[in-house]
Structure formats: structure tokens, C-alpha cells
Design brief:
CATH architecture of the largest domain: Sandwich
Number of helices: 2
Radius of gyration: 26 Å
Number of strands: 9
CATH class of the largest domain: Mainly Beta
CATH superfamily of the largest domain: Cupredoxins -  blue copper proteins
CATH topology of the largest domain: Immunoglobulin-like
Structural class: alpha/beta
Distance between the termini: 88 Å
């Protein structure tokens, strides 16, 4: 009788554990992994040279992962955007790769934080992060519905 109780207890415990694991942990798939890098990630090339970044304005979508490829034509430049958590060096002859996923819409100023000559203070560019299409469409509908005609 003692063996029968142990076997039933073991079977009950292992069955309960199996049910608990099956319901508590959702199946893992590539689509569920929010840290996965999308196959069709946008890549943007940014060139730094004395006193300017080209292009001077880059537009991104909030929540979309983007790869920035940074190059310098003449000397070491900095590439700093504190609100986006970017602070890196761009060395001449090398490509600096940064992957970002902006979480907040807004306009951010990028600066060169390595002195590169008399025009250094003007070496800036803008990164504009827009809401995704679904969010901006909803915002347009709300603002249109708040309009009162006279």
C-alpha cells in the first residue's frame, strides 16, 4: 500500500508540474522575440567630414530598429545624441556601426563632440523620430474630431 501512495503522489505532482509549465510559459518563437533583429532592417549611411554630417537630417520611425553606418572622410569625429543613448567615435577609414530602436518620438540634435577645427561648434545634424503610421493616423483622427466649424 505504501508503494501505491508514493506512485500516485509522484504521478499527481509531475502531472501538476506539467500543467503548470504548459500554461505559465508561452511557446517561444521568432515572432515573439522582441529583441530579435528584423531581416529587413533599414540601414542609413552617415558621412562625417569637417564641420558637417551628411545627410543633415535623418527621419526614423519610433519602435523600428535601424542600423546606422558612420564613416569619416578626414579625421576622428564624435557622434553624440544623449537622449537616444548614442555616444561614439567615428574614425577615418573605418565604419562605425550602431543599431538603434528609438522609443520616443521627437527631434534630437546630434553633435560632434571631438574638436575638429574652427567650425566644430556648428557640426550638428537632426534625427527626427516620428510615430508609427498607425499611431500618427489615430492622432490625426483625434485632432480632426476636435475641430469645430463655425
Amino acid at each position: 500500500m505504501q508503494k501505491s501512495i508514493r506512485i500516485k503522489t509522484f504521478a499527481l505532482a509531475s502531472g501538476a508540474l506539467g500543467i503548470l509549465l504548459a500554461t505559465a510559459v508561452p511557446p517561444l518563437s521568432a515572432a515573439d522575440n522582441s529583441n530579435a533583429v528584423p531581416n529587413s532592417m533599414q540601414t542609413i549611411q552617415i558621412h562625417a567630414k569637417r564641420y558637417q554630417f551628411e545627410p543633415s537630417i535623418v527621419t526614423l520611425k519610433r519602435g523600428e530598429t535601424v542600423k546606422l553606418l558612420l564613416t569619416s572622410e578626414d579625421r576622428t569625429h564624435g557622434f553624440m545624441v544623449k537622449p537616444l543613448g548614442i555616444d561614439t567615435d567615428i574614425e577615418p577609414g573605418k565604419t562605425t556601426e550602431i543599431t538603434i530602436r528609438p522609443g520616443k518620438a521627437g527631434t534630437y540634435t546630434t553633435i560632434c563632440d571631438h574638436y575638429c577645427g574652427l567650425g566644430h561648434n556648428g557640426m550638428k545634424m537632426k534625427i527626427v523620430v516620428e510615430e508609427t503610421a498607425a499611431k500618427s493616423s489615430a492622432a490625426n483622427v483625434v485632432s480632426a474630431s476636435n475641430t469645430v466649424s463655425k
